[in-house]
Design a protein that fits this description.
The structure is a single chain. By secondary structure, this protein is of the alpha/beta class. It is built from eight helices and six strands. The strands form two sheets. The chain has a four-stranded parallel sheet. The radius of gyration is 16 Å and the shape is globular.
Length: 172
């Protein structure tokens, strides 16, 4: 198993996207204590440090972010806060899970009608571990562009996914 490095821009941009689309929370998962400490330092800067004083609306967005050591820790936090067991929704750019994939439209309808919380997982580097993919309650269809290239940053994939699942319907 590999673990990729957490970047300031990913933490920051995904938090802003999560806030824009009304998500209740956002977890940064890393089994490496030093990486979680880095996230804590980033959050401190934007929640209480110079960043909070200079750009207070970013403090609001980053207030939803929490570093945790595992997906199980995120699931436990969701259950403690909501009283419900979260379903696991994974993203997967590789076609290996295509037979299990659900469209964004179908997942949007499901999330809107479900009383269960959902944990949407995004992978970095080589993607999500096969054990996490196997635990998934749902696999989202891949995001596909018009070119013969598919390697979005995690912050771009998160923003596109949030828009497809949680955007307000267009005005008629």
């Amino acid at each position: 198993m590999i673990t990729s490095a957490i970047t300031n821009v990913d933490v920051h941009d995904i938090a802003r996207s999560a806030r824009t689309y009304g998500l209740r929370g956002y977890f940064v998962v890393s089994p490496i204590a030093a990486q979680r400490l880095l996230v804590d330092r980033i959050l401190d800067h934007w929640r209480a440090g110079a960043g909070a004083r200079r750009v207070p609306e970013r403090s609001d967005a980053l207030s939803r972010c929490r570093p945790v050591e595992s997906v199980d820790a995120a699931l436990a936090a969701i259950e403690a806060e909501t009283g419900g067991h979260a379903e696991i929704v994974v993203t997967e750019a590789r076609p290996a899970l295509a037979q299990r994939a659900i469209t964004f439209a179908a997942m949007r309808a499901h999330l809107a009608s479900s009383s269960r919380p959902a944990l949407i997982l995004f992978g970095t580097a080589h993607g999500l571990h096969p054990d996490l993919l196997a635990r998934a309650d749902a696999v989202l269809e891949p995001i596909e562009g018009s070119a013969d290239y598919n390697h979005l940053s995690v912050r771009a994939a998160a923003a596109i996914t949030f828009d497809r699942l949680f955007a307000r319907p267009p005005a008629t």
